[in-house]
Amino acid sequence: MVNIGLLGLGTVGSGVVEILDKRKEKLKGLTGHDIRIKKVLVNDSSKKRKLDPEIELVLDFDEILHDEEISIIVEVTGDVENSYKYISQGLKAGKNIVTANKAVVSKYFEEFSALAKEKDLAFLYEASVAGGIPVLKPLKEQLLLNEVSQVQGILNGTCNYILSRMIDEGKNYHDILKSAQDMGYAEADPTADVDGIDTMRKLRILATLSLQGKINEEDIFMDGISSITSFDIEVIKKMNSTVKLIGEAKSYKDGFTAVVQPTIVPRDNYFANVNLAHNSVAFNGSEVGELKFYGPGAGKLPTGNAVLSDVLDIVTKTYKKNNPLGTAELKNYNHEIKGRYYLRVSDADDNIVRSLRRISEEMPSNKGQVAIITNEIGLMEIKDLLDSLNIEKGRYFLGRILD
Ligand code: NAP
Ligand code: HSE
């Protein structure tokens, strides 16, 4: 018997329970193990829940930590500081860990990886990046044979769902965000999704693995989609393009560049056809070339499925035991990033219009919204210009143009 202690019974936790319940007998035949959830930790005891009476609901983590029959802790709470405690105490107590919580993985990646190595235990986090898509396991496998020089992707289901429906259906931003929340895609605080924070955390995990050196959260240039307007959508459509929130990290000189930003993608580009809550991750290996992964980036069953794939790797002892994190010292070259950009500013006065004209031709404007397309220019040059003109975050939308 393999006993699991499940932390959290929200969207992902209930997906884990549902799939395991459905596949229990089959898994017993396939793995030779009876895998069951023994205890579930939640916050609120008053919530009505449908749960197999054999699964014990607990409010105190110690009841899982000190249960010697539990060998695997599955952490799907979304809480950062408590889950840091759950994961580190769990590893110290000899429990294998599976988590979908990219916020805690991103913040404590090196510490958890080192602790798991020291204790000879599993620390697996497939569901933390790109929801249901199995991408971290193949990436770790390819890293044994390849140097990976670039990783990029659409990594947030909520943002992709919002942008796809704004472009294709002309829907209102706030209505679609509400619908993404109802579907269980968004984080408890959706600003983490729409401001690019969730994508930045996923890129931090992907980039640190891919480039084999520590790339911190604050090393990543980050912009989100929350200021996009229907005016931007109309202009982007006229460019025969669509818009995606893309995270990208690349080897550059003796270091890297790493950015999360809205990207204007021509209709015939691969990423233009990754729609709704789907995600896609592409990486380049020195031997294998470019690999692309595509699938559901969020949601109860796809994410529950990714969590359980990690559980099965522990049960069948097929997970990679080596510490996959590298020790390269990498310099940050984000200040050298250049590109062509679409920039729209609202409530633009004459001074702003004059300043924008210096870097580009002005485009058609509407109700005080003025938009430009730049020639090749440094990303930081644009950010500095916006700062010097005191144009705060909600008043502009900046998108890199993918040629
Ligand atoms: P959720 O629906 O908000 O559920 C969170 C669950 O955790 C709830 O059952 C809550 O208890 C419990 N919880 C929260 N804080 C807790 C604490 N300190 N101690 C014990 N229990 C606690 O969240 P979710 O959407 O399932 O997401 C869970 C994690 O998976 C997050 O890290 C998220 O980023 C990640 N993730 C989500 C998706 C997705 O599609 N939703 C995809 C990939 C990864 P109560 O029920 O008592 O409130
Ligand atoms: N909130 C996240 C998203 C969940 O929308 O992509 C999956 O990580």
Broad structural category: alpha/beta
CATH fold-level topology of the largest domain = Dihydrodipicolinate Reductase, domain 2
Global morphology = globular
What number is the mean pLDDT?
Answer: 96
Residue windows where pLDDT falls under 50 for at least 5 positions: none
CATH class of the largest domain: Alpha Beta
Strand percentage lies at 25-35%
**Cα end-to-end separation:** 55 Å
Number of strands: 19
Write out the CATH superfamily name of the largest domain: Dihydrodipicolinate Reductase, domain 2
Question: Which molecules are bound in this entry?
Answer: NADP nicotinamide-adenine-dinucleotide phosphate, L-homoserine
Pick out its properties.
403 residues; alpha/beta; Rossmann fold; Dihydrodipicolinate Reductase, domain 2; six-stranded parallel sheet; binds NADP nicotinamide-adenine-dinucleotide phosphate; binds L-homoserine
